[in-house]
Structure formats: structure tokens, C-alpha cells
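User: I'll paste a sequence; please echo it back and then give the predicted structure.

Assistant: Echoing your sequence first, then the prediction.
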Amino acid sequence: MLGKTIPDPGFRGDTGGADPRLAAALAAYAKDRSAEREVLAALATARLLVPVVAILAEEEAAEPGELRREKTTEMAIPTIVGRTGRKALPAFTSVDTLARWRADARPVPVESQRAALAAFAEGAEAVLVDPAGPVTYVVERPALYALAEGRVPVPPAEDDEVAAAIRAGVAAEPRVRAAYMSPAEDADLLVGLVLDPGLDPAGVRGAAEGVGRRLAEAAVLRARLGRGLRIAVLPPGRVPEGSPLYARD
């Protein structure tokens, strides 16, 4: 799909090479996903290349059997639509990675903040960095908001405001004795609850649902958790290592 919100370049003397810090962070991320924090930090100050392509805006009328001739063309930003219907704005670290994806696209250098703003203007939910490789990274909605606001994105498990919102949500449930927060494979975060002993199944369910409702109402969590969070009730005696996010006095 194509849009016409083309950012203003504003870069002079750009050779089209990748930002060294971002390139190094992506290479490390390809080997170890725990390097995501370095990728996000590098993105906050990196120059990206947003592609623009020519699209046919109007053709001259032709008689049957005659060739139609191009009348006008316009430049537009292409977007990528996935199988689920999610739309992403492609962005590139260098002219080489752009050419791997689409040779006819013209690179427009922009700050990452402007790339994020362009994504929102095009109705995209993510920015897809180097979709043709060598290392592809998806800037999901929470990180995209941070970039658009000029903030350095951090993984949800390391976001102090996310932690504070979850802490407030679990503290409001009187049957929760403690709560632990950790990254999850199928969501942004896993929140493990330690409940008062002796609760019957209805009490356990009510406590978990109460926490879930409060967390669902937290604006910070809605904005910064693109994949949401999962709540689990921890069995007695099976408490994770480390300090809890919340512990009742």
C-alpha cells in the first residue's frame, strides 16, 4: 500500500552507510536477543532511510488498441501489510539494505523520530527495519511511541513506568501477597501472583480477574505493551528467584 506523507530530508553529506552503533547493535541482536536494549538505544539517535517510490497518478486516454501513455506520477511511501492485516512502514539502515528490498526506491534520510511520526501518519503499527536483511528488526508500537516522543525506548520489563503501573494494580487487590514481573515469550510481560493461602477456586479466580481488570485500565500499559501481558497464579512454594515487584507489608 502507498501513502503520500513524505518526510523532509534535512540531511547533507549523507553517504548512505549504516549508522555504526546501530549496525553493531543489530549484529549483536542477531546472535543474542537480549541485546534488544542496545538496538533500541541506538535507534533513538540513528539516521534511517525511508523509501519513496514513483506511482502513476494519471494516464492519458487512449483509443482501443493504442498504448496508454503516462501523464503524471507522484512520489509516495510504500507500506507493508502482513498476513494479519497489520501495516508496517519499512525503514533502512543503509542504501545497500534498501536496494536488497527494492531497487527502484529512492532513500530519504530521516531521524528515527521522524520515521516513527511518518509511520503513524501512514496508519502503520510498526516500523520494519531492513525487511530484506541482513538483520531485520521490528519496532513495535510501544517503542514507536517512545521514538515519536523523542524518548529512548526500553524493553517493557525494564520500563520503570510500566513497573509502577503494574505495582499499583496488584497492590489494590487485597488477596495478593506478592507479585513478580518477567519477560514472556507470548506477551510483553508475565505477572506472577502469590495469593493468600487457603483461598478457594472462586477466590483465586476473583483475585486474578481483579488484577487483570485494573491492569487493563492502566493507560501506561495500554500505550507501552504492544503484545499485552499475561497473569499467572504461582503455586505455593514455587516463587521465582529475585526480588518481587510488589510485596504486601
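Residues 47 and 111 are 5 Å apart (CA to CA). Helices lie at 20-31, 36-45, 95-101, 112-121, 141-148, 160-171, 201-216, 219-224.
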